[in-house]
Design a protein that fits this description.
The protein is α+β, with helices and mostly antiparallel strands. Strands 26, 27, 28, 29, 30, 31, 32, 33, 34 and 35 form a 10-stranded mixed beta sheet that branches. The chain is globular. The termini are far apart. It contains 23 helices and 35 strands. Bound molecules: zinc ion (ZN). The site of zinc ion has 4 residues, from loops.
């Protein structure tokens, strides 16, 4: 009998040894010591596959594909016993958040580790491989009550952009001199994704494919702790939470406290090794689109870890203090905090579960419901966003809803009907509803460098009332499908112009060689009133087109655009279709500047807008060869935000000016405008409320310690301001008489005297967010959007970037108007 047990025991032991041996360490698998090279993304994926194939403690899944077709992946690891009942654990966990029907409570801690969201902060993906290996082979005890989800690389396109470049240029052996080329990434750098979006600003808006796909899995798990691994400048050793003020008011005392407890556990390990770190500075918890705030507002403890390094450090670099910082050090630090986080979770699993439940039980909200009205395209865009966050909504009954009116910033009401959208706080995602919808975010401290306002009714251009009572709503059952029918007797078709979807429809028509007109003035046809900007597609313009009717109908149905068919070009009132007020829309060829002078973020936003929002071709032009570009190939040149003073010094200003004078259209966004201040013909001046005597030297009595705080008087980093609109100008077609702009800087330009002020501020009225007192004064009588004619052409100024992070949905139509309608001269057919 003894022998029998011995044999069983030996078999059992050898089975364990075999499984343990079968999992190779990252160094064994990759064929080089971890940290001695940057691993290619594909090799990282192979390693995670290897682990999952050889361990009953791991699963590995693909959750999507990037723009450049790299896989987005995550591993789930836990004890063998837990892995066998993973769906049960997940269901019980969601039950604690009030989601789903699973009745049993969970005692398992869920930790989610997200690596390498910024592609050139590349040590963390290396750390992810060591982390999964050590958790499975050495830290099995913690996994008995903990599920760990590992996303080894949130931004594969950015990571490979950085590591491929580094591998090409690095010296052998690597060069630690800061001046070496391997420490100077070329434009645009590996930080952002394919479209050059910062994925750590995109969680709440979910405009990028990586975020959209990740949120589907994130919502299936809603972890107790989420960690976002980053890197910072080479001279700042290591940062971990607790975070800095301002904290959003929905953050609970427990969430604050637990951040500190995790931080103290890291500190213990760092102190043992003599590694330096700092906490409680610089990184605040307010803007909801970060990898720490978003999870926090979804009930997690959201942690940011920042290692010295990023795109500068390579495999090794000498810091200003004279130390050599290596990739091996960097990944070791991230490995340590990752493991330490899992340890804290495991040791406090029960408390995490109780407090997670409490987070979702809160019902103390100033506003209980939001009622939203607007055109169906804008409402649909909002619903798409709510679906991504799995936030529930319903439709109002008819009646009157009173409360805080977003439009007037005071008490008001709206008459509701079955199309009025209701979003309420009596649901699991209540706190996220508050964060995203409330008209004003409470700021405990205004010292923050990101935007301080984002309220969705303003961003989506909707009429909204915030009510302190729950507004009852019901599910909508019937959906009206738009189904236009061809009419062989049609003289033409008319379509309204109110939204980005209308612009997509127009872009598709133009690409399909259909000639389209737009009206510059209101008109009436067959008893229906049409505002300026309405599209008119006539048979006579399209005589050469085969299947004209069916083609137009097909495109309209695809875009769900309602067409009015008219059998006559004779208008009931206003111009007939042959009038000069009804203009042909030219097939615009668009050039877009990129390169060293250009803000990669803003270039990316515009690029994304053309390819993914509007679906209209754009030609990127690099500033490096701009002097050889034949501008006559283009109708429009877009200058994104950037630093163009040297670029414009040579012949380039002359080249652009003469091209505009002969009919070109220049669109200058944000601080690109500053390059044209006081330049002849450009009609743009800086706005100063009073002439200051700049020669006088006043004594500076601001205490040194207050220098940063004092500077915020002059700052605007993102607040919402009401502007007036001249919606008779083509740049503002489809808009009402006011517009809420997201003011992104304190830059202020005078109202145009030689052009059209289309969106402008008379008396600045901040409706949401922080704006420094001095900066606000400077906004009096200032321009937001305008047009200055120059010769045959014109210049469109967009002082606020309406495509910022692609989330200010209501600004996008301005951009389409600038392309298709503004100064639409001549015929190019
Ligand atoms: Zn980062």
């Amino acid at each position: 009998m003894k022998n029998y047990y011995l044999i069983i025991g030996l078999l059992f032991l050898s089975f364990h040894l075999v499984t343990a041996q079968k999992i190779k360490s990252p160094s064994e698998f990759l064929g080089y010591e971890l940290g001695s090279q940057f691993s290619r993304h594909a090799d990282v994926v192979n390693y995670f596959n290897h682990v999952a194939e050889n361990s009953p403690m791991a699963e590995y899944h693909t959750y999507g594909k990037t723009n450049e077709r790299r896989p987005l992946t995550y591993a789930v690891i836990s004890s063998k016993e837990n892995m066998a009942k993973l769906e049960n654990i997940r269901g019980s966990h969601l039950n604690n958040a009030g989601i789903g029907n699973n009745q049993s409570d969970s005692e398992i801690a869920i930790v989610w580790l997200s690596y390498n969201v910024h592609g050139n902060e590349a040590s963390s993906t290396e750390a992810s491989m060591k982390t999964i290996y050590k958790l499975i082979t050495e830290k099995q005890d913690w996994l008995k009550n903990t599920v760990v989800i590992i996303d080894p690389c949130v931004n594969p396109d950015g990571r490979d952009r950085y590591t491929n470049w580094y591998n090409q240029v690095k010296a052998e052996p690597y060069n630690i001199t800061q001046e070496a080329d391997e420490h100077h990434e070329p434009w645009p750098g590996g930080r952002p994704n394919h479209y050059l979006f910062d994925l750590n600003r995109d969680w709440a808006w979910a405009t990028q494919i990586e975020t959209q796909e990740r949120l589907k899995i994130y919502n299936q798990w809603l972890p107790h702790i989420h960690v976002d691994f980053h890197e910072q400048g080479i001279n700042d050793p290591y940062y971990f939470a607790p975070a800095a003020e301002p904290f959003h008011e929905v953050i609970t005392p427990f969430q604050r406290d637990f951040q500190t407890r995790i931080g103290k556990n890291h500190a213990k390990y760092f102190d043992e090794e003599g590694w330096l770190y700092f906490t409680g500075e610089r990184f605040d918890l307010l803007y909801p689109s970060y990898g720490d705030t978003y999870p926090t507002y979804m009930g997690a403890i959201g942690m940011t870890y920042e290692q010295a390094g990023h795109g500068r450090a390579g495999l090794g670099i000498k810091t200003d203090e004279g130390y050599v910082l290596t990739l091996k050090d960097r990944l070791e630090h991230h490995f340590t905090t990752g493991i330490s986080t899992v340890e804290v979770a495991s040791k406090n699993a029960s408390e995490l579960n109780n407090e997670f439940q409490n987070y979702f039980n809160s019902d103390d909200f100033e506003y209980a419901s939001y009622a939203l009205q607007g055109n169906s395209d804008k409402l649909n865009a909002l619903k798409t966003l709510l679906d991504r966050h799995e936030i529930k909504y319903s439709y109002a009954n008819s009646g009157k809803i009173s409360g805080y009116s977003f439009n007037s910033s005071s008490t008001g009401s709206l008459n509701s009907d079955e199309n009025t959208l209701i979003v309420s706080t009596n649901q699991p995602k209540a706190k996220m509803v508050k964060v995203l919808f409330e008209p004003k975010t409470k700021l405990a401290d205004s010292l923050t460098y990101d935007i301080t306002a984002w309220s969705l009714p303003y961003a989506y251009g909707l009429d909204a009332i915030a009510s302190n009572k729950i507004i009852p709503g019901s599910e909508k059952t019937s959906v009206n499908q738009i189904e236009n029918k061809a009419n062989p007797k049609a003289a033409g078709y008319i379509s309204k112009w109110n939204s980005l979807q209308d612009a997509q429809f127009l872009a598709d028509l133009i690409k399909s060689e259909v000639k389209v007109r737009f009206s510059e003035v209101p008109f009436e046809s067959n008893g229906e009133n049409y505002a300026p900007g309405s599209l008119i597609i006539t048979k006579s313009d399209n005589r050469k087109l085969e299947n004209f009717d069916s083609k137009v109908i097909e495109i309209a149905n695809k875009h769900e655009r309602l067409l009015l068919t008219t059998e006559t070009s004779f208008a009931g009132s206003g111009p007939d279709f042959g009038s000069s007020d009804i203009k042909i829309i030219n097939h615009q060829k668009v050039g877009l500047l990129k390169g060293d002078e250009v803000s990669s973020l803003n270039f990316g936003e515009i690029w994304y807008f053309f390819e993914q929002d509007l679906n209209y071709p754009v030609t990127p032009l690099n500033s490096a060869y701009f002097n050889r570009v034949n501008l006559n190939e283009f109708d429009i040149l877009i200058m994104p935000e950037g630093w163009y003073s040297e670029f414009l010094e040579d012949k380039n200003l002359e080249k652009i000016t003469s091209w505009v004078e002969s009919g070109g259209k220049l669109i200058a966004v944000g601080n690109a405008i500053s390059n044209f201040i006081d330049k002849e013909g450009f009609g743009i001046r800086e706005n100063k409320t009073e002439e200051k005597d700049t020669t006088a030297t006043e004594p500076n009595l601001i205490p040194y310690a207050k220098r940063e705080r004092e500077s915020i008087k002059n700052m605007i980093t993102g607040s919402i301001i009401e502007t007036r609109l001249d919606n008779t100008h083509p740049l503002a077609f489809g808009y009402e008489e006011n517009y809420f702009t997201l003011k992104l800087s304190s830059d202020s330009y005078s109202l145009l005297s030689n052009g059209y002020n289309v969106s402008y501020i008379k008396e600045p009225k901040i409706v949401s967010g922080f704006a420094g007192s001095e900066a606000v004064k400077n906004l009096k009588n200032s321009l937001i959007f305008g047009e200055v004619p120059m010769g045959e052409g014109s210049i469109v100024y967009m002082v606020d970037n309406p495509l910022f992070r692609a989330f200010w949905e209501n600004g996008k139509l301005f951009f389409a108007n600038a392309i298709f309608f503004t100064n639409n001269t001549g015929y190019d057919y």
